[in-house]
Amino acid sequence: MSTGANPTLPPGPRLPRPVQTLGWVTRPMAFMERCQQRYGDTFTLRIQNEGQWVFLCDPEDVKRVFTGDPNLLRAGEANAILGPVVGSRSVLLLDEPEHMTHRKLMLPPLHGERMQSYGELMLDVTREEIERWPLGEPFALWPRMQAITLEIIMRAVFGITDSEHLSSLRGLLRSMLDWTTDRRQLGLMAVLGPQRIERREAFRQLMDPIDEAVIAEIRDRRESPDLASRQDILSMLVQARYEDGSPMSDRELRDELITLLVAGHETTATSLAWALERLLRHPQKLDRLREEAAAGVDTYTEAVVKETLRLRPVLPIVLRRLAAPMQFGGYQIPAGASVAPCIYLMHRREDVYSQPQQFRPERFLEAEGGRAPGTYTWIPFGGGVRRCLGASFAQFEMARVLQSVLGELDLRATEQRSERAVRRAITFTPDRQAMALVKARRSYSPSSPTAIGELAGTLG
After folding, report:
1. Angle at the Cα of 391 (from 299 to 340), degrees rounded to 5?
2. Under a CB-based contact definition with an 8 Å cutoff, are residues 399 and 303 in contact?
3. Whose CA is closest to 85, among 212, 254, 265?
4. CA separation (Å) from 374 to 310, 358, 408, 414?
5. CA–CA dist 429, 183 (Å, integer)
6. Distance CA 303, CA 455 (A)
7. How far apart are CA 47 and CA 458, in angstroms?
8. Which pLDDT score, from 0 to 100, does residue 437 have?
9. pLDDT in tens, 34-75
10. pLDDT more than 90, % of the chain
């Protein structure tokens, strides 16, 4: 351990960089666990085209990252690998002060009353989808959750009601989302780097039609006579203004819309699949969620959402690139390296979570001896000024979809054996895609508007 003035990296595997990259891409959970067991809560990995990543698993180090100066802990630079898809003007790739300027414009549609207004949309989309599920036949829940969350985010973002128009745009966006969730493409990105990927002809053939369609949607919306009365996110962002009174440019809007679609679809769909996978193997917990939701009580649903995000976080780490040397874990980390608060390992600390490998939503219920999630120990959405913009929206959406699915269907697991987490591009998904079958359909009345509002207020 070094506490001197000379920057030095914590220990880590001595394997060649390509071999470490392969381990990170193919078996990330086992790789992280072995490193923590051998090197402790602070260790270094060397990733192709990414420099050095210093993993942080101690709550105090994570707190220092999330409360530190964002001008020194630069998330935008660390997220550069996402640039070919989300674009250079995405809030994910901007650093201060531009990041905060964009964040202020993006936040209102995803919180509070604006967010609550999408509750009925979420229920409607879910009902439309589950009506098509087969009775008594095994099927995979994960792609069905993808269908639900894509439809919700598309309708919420674009506000399109014409079915033909919606179908055309859905097809384009589906091709992009399939590319971003393909593990082979992640490997190619790691080898070539984002700049070379962006210049590839095959990638341009994928993205150019999507860019043209989204830009056309933006320009059409600017000229819409009913713009002021529309409630979709695109219409709100078109009307948003910077402090000097200027609107977002077409390119800025394109990048932020793609960011919402990419970030708001795959991650929520995967979290929903994990929630159902866990509940189906804990039938007493499933029954409790269903009974309390039918009675208009949402606290257990909220606890299930939080516990799912703890036990099965969709993303394993968040990254910050250092603009100057900083000390973490007793090491003076050099400028240019990235620090990586590790969501996956933090959520498995036995000194923070009793029996961390078990699925126990009750740990978040104060009435049963639980406690509220810790700001720096429950971090599925990151933290600080870079905490995920859609965190409240995602949790609200998960709650509404779970209540609808479990309230209207009698679902069963196809086998008792739990599903393993495997990498699908940057997310961790169930290895058998959350297999289930519908035993029966039931009538269900969703929670009262009052209860829905209370849940949204709690999550917001």
Report:
1. 120
2. no
3. 254
4. 11, 18, 33, 35
5. 12
6. 11
7. 39
8. 96
9. 999 999 999 999 998 888 999 999 999 999 999 999 999 999
10. 70
Query: Of 150, 123, 160, nearest to 234 (Cα)?
Result: 160
Tokens of 224: 């819409």
Q: What is the DSSP string of 74-142?
A: EHHHHTGGGHHHH-TTSTTT--TTHHHHHHHHHSGGGSHHHHHTTHHHHHHHHHHHHTTSPBSS-EEHH
251 and 295 in contact (C-beta within 8 Å)?
no
Q: Give the count of alpha carbons within 13 A of 114, CB side only.
A: 19
Q: Which residues pair with 139 in a beta bridge?
A: 436
- The per-residue DSSP string of 42-83 comes to EEEEEETTTEEEEEE-SHHHHHHHHHS-TTTEEHHHHTGGGH
- The size of the chain, in residues, is 460
Three-class SS of residue 326? strand
CA atoms within 13 A on the CB side of 387: 19
Spell out a b/e string for 162-174, using b for 16 or more CB atoms within 10 Å of the CB, else e.
eeeeeeebbebbe
Taking the C-alpha atoms of residue 225 and residue 205, their distance in angstroms, rounded to an integer, is 33
> Residue 333 is inside which H or E element, if any?
strand 331-333
Q: Is 330 left (phi over 0), alpha (psi -120 to 50) or beta?
A: left
Q: Left, alpha or beta for 355 (phi > 0: left; psi -120 to 50: alpha)?
A: left
Full-model pTM = 0.91
Whether a cis peptide bond, with omega within 30° of 0, leads into 97 is yes
Residues 7-16, mean pLDDT to the nearest whole number:
92
> What pLDDT is recorded for position 366?
86
Q: How, if at all, do strands 427-430 and 435-441 pair?
A: unpaired
Give residue for tokens 């999330």: 66
Residue 301 has pLDDT above 80, yes or no: yes
**In angstroms, what is the C-alpha Rg of the chain?**
22
CB 394 within 8 A of CB 272: no
Distance CA 66, CA 320 (A): 10
Q: Are 185 and 202 in contact (CB under 8 A)?
A: no
Q: Which two tokens stand for residue 402?
A: 């779970």
Calculate the alpha carbon distances from 400 to 128, 187, 304, 408, 458 in Å.
14, 35, 12, 12, 14
The string of pLDDT tens digits covering residues 343-393 is 999 999 999 999 999 999 999 998 788 888 899 999 999 999 999 999 999
- Using DSSP's 3-state secondary structure scheme, residue 146 falls into helix
